[in-house]
Amino acid sequence: MTFEEFQNEFPVVVPINVAWGEMDAFQHVNNVVYLRYFETARIAYMHAIGLNTDLSKAKDSDNPIGPILADSYCRFRRPVTFPDTLHIGCRISELQEHGFVMEYQAFSEQQQTIATIGNSRIIMLNYFTGVKSKLPSSMLNKIKELQNDN
After folding, report:
1. Cα gap 63→86, rounded to integer Å
2. pTM for this one?
3. Please, is 100 exposed, middle or buried when counting C-beta atoms within 10 Å of its C-beta (0-12, 13-18, 19+)?
């Protein structure tokens, strides 16, 4: 897959420069760092659809519903080392009644290929009651618009 093809696959792509300190004793980016990279892309996606990611603001608003990370998965395909720039692509791959599954891919500029893939499940939660909430139709519309789904 070329970088252009990669960019066309994802509605949100965030470039991240690999820092020297993110490498571990095996001289490649440590596994936990990828979850931070995915988090950065996830938050960028949520901002793109207008989803509130600030708990303090959600509790003070008329709509106290927001996202909670339920689980996360990461598969390492190729080791990444400093210096490199990873482009983290993010999209929603599955809509569910109370949330969605997000898919991530990390494209390495140095290797010109996908180095790491992952996904996470997001649950919508009412921050006042602690109860799962359905995805609002307005949010579904924003997701479909961002991902060019009709």
Report:
1. 35
2. 0.93
3. buried
